[in-house]
Specification:
- The chain is of the alpha/beta class.
- Helix content is about 35%, strand content about 30%.
- It contains 12 helices and 15 strands.
- The strands form 3 sheets. A 6-stranded mixed sheet has the order 6-7-8-3-9-10, sandwiched between helices. The protein has a 5-stranded antiparallel sheet with strand order 11-12-13-15-14. Strands 2-1-4-5 form a 4-stranded antiparallel sheet, covered by helices on one side.
- Helix 3 crosses helix 4.
- Bound molecules: adenosine-5'-diphosphate (ADP) and magnesium ion (MG).
- The site of adenosine-5'-diphosphate has 10 residues, from strand 2 and helix 1.
- The site of magnesium ion has 3 residues, from helix 1.
Length: about 350
């Protein structure tokens, strides 16, 4: 139904979509997940021609959107898009929001459009709001109206761009329930979402987007339970990380500690954890042998609550965790006392220390 071939999109110098290739079949429900800024919205907007791609091609039912003989408005009508911010016409009633498109663009009679609109409002649970105005509705209700309005245009493909991310948490489930309901009717859907449970349950396939590509795709089981690639795994397991690079012995300890502390604060880790991290950074930098290329990384694993710390320093192999290697054994003892586990290995010219912080 949708075939995307070598789709790219640049904004000036910024390459947002590199080369997207995919086929979406009729009746499929695709969830797109991935970090923000990776082009998920841009991809949807290209499908719907709200953005003009820089290169590549998009075929809808084997008709190219970019062929000059193609009736683009007609093809676009096959696609409905639901935005994060609802985009309802605030000066029109709920009913008028649902009928204006069908009357003006599909040439429907008013009575027919009204009848269909009321049916759709019933479907999304808002039959009693027919004569209300958008301002009188909650966020969840507005989004359900927006979905009904989309359906009023009788689309064959529905595109959702983070339909619940502007909503109060209490209203997320009512909107997801409506989308689930529509999914059962067999309409083709592409949904950008941060609701992982929902994506897991509803999708026939999941696309993980990163680096301007569909970086990994698979069934929900493959992507959520057994992701193959590093970045997908990190995203799925919600490992957040902060990294600092050091190139000389004259490093700025306070700046490094400050940044790592901020990271701890952002993830609402306790004061004790944050103090321990600061101490570990101080001690681990004390015991290094070679300072020309050191990378410190802090990882916070949301699922397990574990905090991991790695220090990679280029140079000759030396096990810095072994007591007696360096003069400062006290620093080493302090370091170890703050850790649940520690590990040393030498790999690719780097001394790698891995620590799990006690939490
Ligand atoms: P996502 O939806 O995955 O968060 P977006 O598709 O919104 O990502 O954006 C991807 C990148 O493209 C971001 O760096 C964003 O700033 C940039 N971008 C999006 N739209 C525009 C635009 N109209 N002009 C310039 N840059 C844009
Ligand atoms: Mg987006």
């Amino acid at each position: 139904m949708i075939r995307v071939h070598g789709l790219s999109k640049h904004f000036g110098e910024l390459v947002v979509l590199k080369e997207i290739n995919t086929v979406i079949n009729k009746g499929e429900i695709i969830s797109i997940i991935g970090p923000s800024g990776t082009g998920k919205s841009t991809f949807l907007r290209c499908l719907n021609l709200l953005e003009t791609p820089t290169g590549g091609d998009i075929f809808i039912d084997d008709i190219s959107l970019f062929d000059k003989h193609t009736n683009v408005p007609k093809i676009r009508q096959k696609m409905g898009m639901v935005f994060q911010s609802f985009n309802l016409y605030t000066h029109l009633s709920v009913l008028e929001n649902l009928t204006i498109g069908p009357i003006k663009l599909l040439g429907k009679k008013k009575e027919e459009a009204n009848k269909k609109a009321i049916e759709l409002l019933r479907l999304v649970g808002l039959a009693e709001k027919v004569y209300s105005f958008p301002d009188e509705l909650s966020g969840g209700q507005k989004q359900r109206v927006a979905i009904a309005r989309c359906m009023a245009m009788e689309p064959e493909i529905l595109l959702f761009d983070e339909p619940t991310s502007a909503l109060d948490p209490t209203m997320v489930s009512e909107v997801l329930a409506v989308i689930r309901r529509l999914a059962r009717e067999g309409i083709t859907m592409v949904i950008v979402t941060h609701e992982m449970e929902f994506a897991f349950n509803i999708s026939s396939r999941v696309f993980y987007m990163d680096e301007g590509l569909i970086y990994e795709e698979g069934t929900p089981q493959q992507i959520f339970e057994n992701p193959k690639r590093e970045k997908t795994r990190t995203f799925i397991h919600r490992i957040r990380s902060a990294t600092k690079h050091i190139t000389s012995k004259a490093y700025d300890l306070y700046a490094i500690q400050g940044e790592m502390e901020l990271f701890c604060e952002k993830h609402m880790l306790s004061r004790k954890v944050s103090d321990d991290v600061a101490l570990i950074i101080e001690e681990i930098l004390e015991v290094q042998a070679d300072y020309h290329d050191i990378e410190l990384s802090l990882f916070y694993h949301e699922k397990s609550g574990n905090i991991e710390f790695t220090c990679e320093s280029a140079g000759e192999p030396v096990n810095l965790l072994e007591e007696g290697t360096l003069e400062d054994d006290i620093g080493l003892k302090i370091l170890k006392s703050r850790c649940k586990s520690h590990d040393y290995r030498y790999e690719d010219g780097k001394n790698i220390i891995e620590l799990t912080v006690k939490v």
